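On clarity, I found the account of how folds are encoded harder to follow than it need be. Since the whole study asks how a given chain folds, the encoding of that fold should be made plain. The format is easy to grasp once an entry is in front of the reader. For illustration, here is how one protein appears when written out as sequence plus structure tokens.
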Amino acid sequence: MRNMGLIAGVVCALTAWMNACSDYGSKPADRPDRVTLAGTVCSDNPADRDYPVKIMFIVDSSPGMAGLDMEGYRSTAVEGIINRFAVSSRHEFSMIQFGGRAIELTDGYTNRQTNLVEAIASLRSTVSCVGDSCRDWLGALSL
């Protein structure tokens, strides 16, 4: 029994000595563990700035869409967005209609109401196919 106590004491001493000499749980000295940020914060109100906003609508007016949107939701959605943002002079809009071929309805970006009303009216019509092409979406993206 006395030998058991001696063996237990030696095992405890060896365990304590081995744990004391290990680097278990410590971090290496060359490993970063902190982050420092430096810079300037812009604290003015972004609503006071006059950034230009350009919104482009590319609308599919091919014959296939006429049967899917008989109520004209596409042109109504475009009109609603324009009415919401047209009160600000910094918003400009561009409209491209594609079907058989791509057509730029607004001649670039504009905020002139007469041009926008005419373009929205054009969106309500269906564009005919040209040859075997009924959806020239690549042409619309290239305008």
Notes: The chain has five helices and three strands. Helices lie at 2-21, 63-68, 73-85, 113-123, 137-142. The radius of gyration is 35 Å.
